[in-house]
Amino acid sequence: YFNESMAFSYYKEVNTAILNRHITEQGGSLLAACCLRLLGKLSVRQQHWANGRASLLEALKVCEKVGDSYCHALVHMDLGDLFQNLVESSGGILIETREFSSTFHNLLYTFSRGPLLLYRLLAERVNGLPNFYSMNYQNWVALHMLRLALRNYRSAEKHFKQLKNRRGQIEINSRMAGLLFVLSHTASAERLS
């Protein structure tokens, strides 16, 4: 495992057969969780998001079974990174400019964005509904992914606090602060930074 972890760190080829052998032989051990985590991170690096998520979720189950909070925190941090990387690689949050010359195009645009318009009207009138959403469906998906990243970062933060791991807390707070700024929670982000 150590050699493959070093190969991953130095962007060299990782022998996944060795990692899979450890997972099979070691079953629900901490070594299996570490191998699953490394496979997940490798899949994310290769932009195989579903495989990466599956490996990381399996590592999370093994960490819970073993009862290792530090490994649990690291896997949650990796899951948060996965969702953030997925948003970034898909183009991120798009800033929309809408300049149509004809009435037909404006009508078509309004019709296709009906649910988004309805939400925007509600968000302006109802306290507690986030008002950050735009008229672009990709942004809705991106914001959902960023919320999943934030949820995983908060889980990691909880485990790092339980362990009194200051370095882990600082690292996760830095990631959460950047994400909170993107999600327009500037007051919360400023408290973390």
Measured between the Cα atoms of the first and last residue, the distance is 35 Å
Helix-strand pattern: HHHHHHHHHH
Tally of extended strands?
0
Low-confidence stretches: none
- The count of helical stretches stands at 10
Largest sheet: none
How would the global form be characterised?
A: elongated
The structure class reads mainly alpha
Helix content: over 70%
Mean pLDDT: 87
Radius of gyration: 20 Å
Q: Approximately what portion of the residues adopt beta-strand conformation?
A: under 5%
Structural write-up:
With 193 residues, the protein is mostly helical. The protein is 76% helix and 0% strand. The chain has 10 helices and no strands. It has helices at residues 2-9, 16-26, 30-45, 49-66, 69-89, 103-112, 114-125, 137-163, 166-182, 186-192. Helix 3 (30-45) packs parallel to helix 5 and helix 4 (49-66) runs antiparallel to helix 5 (69-89). The longest helix has 27 residues, at 137-163. It is elongated, with a radius of gyration of 20 Å. The mean pLDDT is 87.
Topology at a glance:
Elements (H helix, E strand, L loop, with lengths): L1 H8 L6 H11 L3 H16 L3 H18 L2 H21 L13 H10 L1 H12 L11 H27 L2 H17 L3 H7 L1
Helix pairs in contact: 2-3, 3-4, 3-5, 4-5, 5-8, 8-9, 9-10
